[in-house]
Request: fold
Amino acid sequence: METLAPVFLLIFIYFIPSFVASARRHHNSTAIFMLNLLLGWTLVGWVISIVWASTAVERQADKAEKHEETGRAHPPKLSAKSHVEQLSELTAMHKSGAITDDEFTAMKAKIIDS
Reply:
């Protein structure tokens, strides 16, 4: 039995990256375990898995708290076009008769308010 103690110690040390990932509830803990299992015998594979297991993980609860602090349900979406471009297109549509005066006014207010 005393000859097995060093073997168990080496196995424990070998799987430290997997234990760290599991304890930190890392979202990639399965992938870290597989890397550790298959390539941990190389020093590079073991180092990569321990670094990966130690990286910061942003949890869903943390994301929800950030959104609650800003008072928004979701982060604001950025428009692909600037307000000037949107207003130019809207004006061109209005001049061509594609939209009415009321539609133009409503859409212009929506662009300016965003």
Q: What stands out?
A: The first helix runs from residue 5 to 14. Residues 67 and 75 are 7 Å apart (CA to CA). The chain has a mean pLDDT of 84. The chain has two domains: 5-61, 78-113.
